[in-house]
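Need fresh eyes. Consider my entry:
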Amino acid sequence: MKKLVSVLTIIMLSFFTFVACNQTKQVNMQKVRVGEVTHSLFYAPLYVALQNGYFKDEGLDIDLQTTAGGDKTMTALLSNGIDIALVGSETSIYVYNQGAKDPVINFAQLTQTDGTFLVSRKKLDSFNWSDLEGSVFLGQRKGGMPQMVGEYVLKKYGINPQQDLTLIQNVEFANIANAFASGTGDFVQLFEPTASIFEKEGKGYIVASFGKESGKVPYTSFMTKESYLKDNQKVIEKFTRALYKGQQWVDTHSPEEIAKVVTPLFKDTPQDIIVKVIERYKNQNSYATNPILDTEEWNNLQSIMKEAGELPKEVPYDILVDTSIAENVINQ
């Protein structure tokens, strides 16, 4: 009987010790509020890092919010509604050129090409960019990276967006897909998985990739205010380390394996669509394999902005980009 009591005592002590340790871990978890400009398979490395527990391993409790549109995402960051923003790097340039006292710093890159696709309402036996001449093109928000890349590619093929077609840019980012589905436009610029879903449902047909046509750019990056970066160096380092693990995992695994991990975050998207989208992004090297945003990409970004007439003043790379933490994480 004494032996039984001793065994039960040990079991109870072990249980309470486990609970206490677990509670200590929970208390020590640091909450980080992250705003993503849209929820898309374009951001698969982030979702892999979340689903595989890489952020938790670093002691970070990620509160991920979808803040639809670059302007809303940046407003949330500047007003302290979020700690880190995942949005196009052009937004940091806009904020800086507006004279921000606490500029927004890009510290880790997630995607390195445009993530949108040109979708045609009609099924075309063959596609040529000249097919857009005289058409109604439902584009993205003026001043945003998708719109600027869209215009950059059109000009590349000799099409003047303001003269050679009817360009619609006054539709809210979150409503563009619905507007096209309701009959607006002959062509539309869409992110995945919406583009592939439309194709599967016969609402439109993917005819070209803006990512393939525009080259490497820091299309979406993680950024934060300079003050937050200064006061939370360890947090940013942990965040970047977890992200890098997610990027490396995506780089070394198949679309099917990646789809299996991220599916819980896209419950309304069919599995075959998820696999197809990830495969498409991997094939065009949209996913950055490390968090470093390099000088060439930054310069290409500003060239595209300048071409679109959206660059008030060029901003040197080292003012709004800090790769020191990313480099340290990679070299560890």
About this structure: The longest helix spans residues 2-28. The chain is about 50% helix and 15% strand. The mean pLDDT is 91. The first strand starts at residue 30 and ends at 36.
